[in-house]
Amino acid sequence: xxxxxFYAIFxxxxxxxxxxxxGKESIDIHGPLLMIKTTKLRGFxxxxxxxxxxxxxxxxxxxxxxxxxMGIMFYSLIISLEQLFVTPQAALIIPGxxxxxxxxxxxxxxxxxxFVVLIVVHEFAHxxxxxVEGIRIKSIGVLLLGIxxxxxxxxxxxxxxxxxxxxxxRVYAAGSTANLITAAIACLLVLGISFYIVPATFEVDGxxxxxxVPASPASExxxxxxxxxxxxxxxxxxxxxxxxxxxxxxIGDNVxxxxxxxxxxxxxxxxxxxxxxxYIGVRTVSHNIVREEVAKxxxxxxxxxxxxxxxxxxxxxxxxxxxxxxxxLPLKPLDGGLMLDELLNYKLPKKITxxxxxxxxxxxxxxxxxxIIWGTGRGLLMALL
Length: 385
Hints:
By secondary structure, the chain is an alpha+beta fold. It has helices at 2-20, 42-48, 52-83, 108-132, 157-162, 165-201, 239-247, 292-298, 304-326, 335-347, 350-384; strands at 27-30, 33-38, 137-145, 148-155, 202-212, 227-231, 234-235, 254-259, 262-267, 269-271, 274-279, 282-290.
């Protein structure tokens, strides 16, 4: 849980500096909300917004796509209720923190880089479309809501309220659209590198432990970086063989791991997500080595740049897609909620749309909170204990 200490120290330092310099014009503190503002990037956003016809054409294309994702995300959230207490999943993804029960673990630095990219493209997209529609940008900055980081582009509310409904939809949809486009570009690059460059540069030489879940059966024995040679006398040559070797393991079985650092006997426990399945608590990746013909030309170190690049792009893709689509939920003040509210207000009076939007927002918040408490909260408690 070293990453949690990293976050704790970071946020203590940031909040401490904010209180020391809170008299400065660029720093605002409102209860748990800390905002650091600047106006220096407004000219840069104005330059990016100059091809107005192009940006409007792109957003007109993506507005219906955003509404489709809104429906998919809302349906997925409803379906999650059915499985929540049967196969719970951790609802928050925290870079560097391996939460028991979470289907995903994001390495710290890849995760932080991915979050920076998604926040920058999201907020700059809102700023660009604001300027395309002639809306003044008051400030740009970063924020902390307690310990939750974010960024913002602050348009003039009065000018935003006075533009046409379609213009508002373009501004609201811009952030998630930018995330989806970024995810698509990153995904294409990952596929290109993975299918053509990586196989030509590396060859698979077994399976490596990429992380060990805290408080899991494996946490007392196995470590990140170990190479798995065999499991219960089954030779592990690749990830496919590894998956098959786990299929026959039952709860309470004694599992023998032979690694490059010794032999370990581990008793499997109950899977946090499914009480009928066994659980060890290791995440693995293919162990690659540089091909000899490549090493003769480029050495053994430089080719690994492709490996690091494809990992970074993979997390940029995944985080932009997950956060971009999550932001399209019909929940105010998320972009999806603002879009749905604007669409409903176009034909219906506010006395109908306001209660409806308030009700659906409360409903979604309740589901999200339950997921966080039962998923992430339960998993973090397991890790801490």
